[in-house]
Amino acid sequence: MRAVLSISPRQSPLATALVAAAIVLAGTLLYATSLGYVPPYLIHDEAQGALQAHAIATTGRDLSGRLLPMYFTEPEFPPGRDPVMIYVTALGLTVLPFSEAGARTPTALVAVLDLVLMFFAARALFQSTWMGLVAAALLALTPIHFIRGRLMLSPLYSIPFVLAWLWSLARFEQHPTARRFVAACVWLVLGMYSYLAAVVMMPLYLAMTVGVAARSMRWRGLLLAAAVFVVCLLPMAGWYLTHPERNAQIVSAYQLDAAAVASRLGIYWRFFDPAYLFVSGDPSLVNSTRASGLFPWAFAALLPIGLIALFRSRSPINLVIAAGFLLAPIVSVISGAIEMNRVMFAIPFAALVATAGIVRLWHARALVSKVIAALLVVSVAWQFGLFYRGYMSEEYRLAAAPWLSGNARDALRELIARSGDADIYISRDIDWVHRMWRFYAIEAGRLDLLSHTTYFSDPPATAATGARLICPAESARCSALQSSGAWHEMVRVPSLGGARVFVILERTAAEKKIG
User: Fold this and answer.
1) Is residue 19 classed as helix, strand or coil in its secondary structure?
2) Class of residue 93 by CB neighbours under 10 A (exposed 0-12, middle 13-18, buried 19+)
C-alpha cells in the first residue's frame, strides 16, 4: 500500500533536514515545556533513576559504588533498572541542572526523537513525505505518548529502537541489502537494553524481520546479522553470567509462572476495550487525565480501517505493522496485568496503523472518504488541544498529586532551608523519603546533610538541642513528639490540595526520653 502524496519522489537532503528540524522544534516546545510544573511531583522511580544518573554523571559509579554497571540493582527492586535511561539521563545531567525539570528533560527529548523517527519510518513505509508528517503528528498528539514523554521512566526508551528498526526494515524492503538487514537487527538487540519487557518483544520483532527477509536475503546476510546480534548481546550475557541470581529475581518480582500465564489470556482482550483505549485511559492519574483514552477518539475508526488495509495489502512490512499492534499486550499477559509500562509497545504501531487508515480513506474514489480522512486528522488536533488544556490545568495537578509519591517535596525543601548544620531526623512514615531527601539535598547543593540525617520509625529517644525533625502531621508518632514538650513546631507544610500535611519540629529542650 503506497501513498501518492509525496511532495517530491526525490526530496533533497536539505528539504528533509528542514522538515526534521521543524519536527524537533515543535516537539521540543510541546514536550519539554513546564516539566517542573506538570506532573506536579516526582514519582519515586523518577527520583531514584535521577539519583543513579547523577551518580554516574559525577563519579562514573552507581549508588552502590559499582563502576559503570549494566543494570542498576536496588534493595527495593533487585533485578535492577535498565541501563539506557540511566546513561542517557546521566549524559543530560552533565549539562542540565539537577532538578525535577532537568532530570525529566532527557526523556522529553527522547519523546521528540520518537517524532523524528516516526517521520522517517512512515515516509519510508508509505512512500510519502506527507504521510510521514501525518504519522509524526499523530504520535505527537497521542495523549499517552505525551504523558509518558514527560516522566523519567524507562518504558518510553524502547520506542526509539522500535521506530529505528521499522525505518531500517522499510528501507530494506525497498532495496534489500545485507547492511540494511543487519541495521534492522542491531536496533532490535540494542532495544533489549532499554526496558525489561523488550527482552520479550524484541525477539518477536526479530522473527518478523527474518520473515520479511527470508525470500530476498542470502544465507550469508542472515549469518552476518545473527553474528552481529550475538555480539551486541554479549554485555547482557556477561552480566547474567556474573549475576545468575537476576533470573530468579525477575521471576519473583513479576510472579511469573507458566500455569498462571495460561490463565491470564483474558487479559489480552481487556487491552482492546474501547473505553480503555479511547475514552478514559489508564485508571492511574499518573498515566491519564481520565478525560481521554490512550489514543485520540479518531483512532477508534482509523485503527480498524488501517488494520484491514494492511492485511489486504499482503505486503510483508505492512503485516509487520499490523502484527506489532496486535501483539502489544503479550507482556501484560505474561505479567498478569494491563499496566501502562507493559503496553508502551502499542504506541508506535498504533500511530502507523492509524496512518494506514488515513491513506486508505484518502485513496478511496469517493470524495466523502477524503473529507472524512481530513476531518479525522483535524479532530486529533482538536481533541489534543482539549486534553492539553486539562493536563496543564491546576485542577489536574491537584487531582494527580495524591497519585505521585513525591508529595513531600515542598516540606523537604523547607527542611533544607531551615536545617543549617543541625542534626536531622526524618520519619519513615513519609513514602520513599530516603530517595526524595537525597534528591532534594543534591538539588539544593546540600549533599552534606546526608551525613547527619537519621531515619526513624519510632520517635527518637535522644537528640541534640536544635535538631530538626520532619514527620506527617497525621502520624501518632508525630503527635507524641509534639506533646512531649521536647520538640517545638516550626512550620506546617501542606502538599498540593492539602492531601497531606508535614510538620517540621525543632528540638528545644535538653535530652529527654520520649515516652
Assistant:
1) helix
2) buried
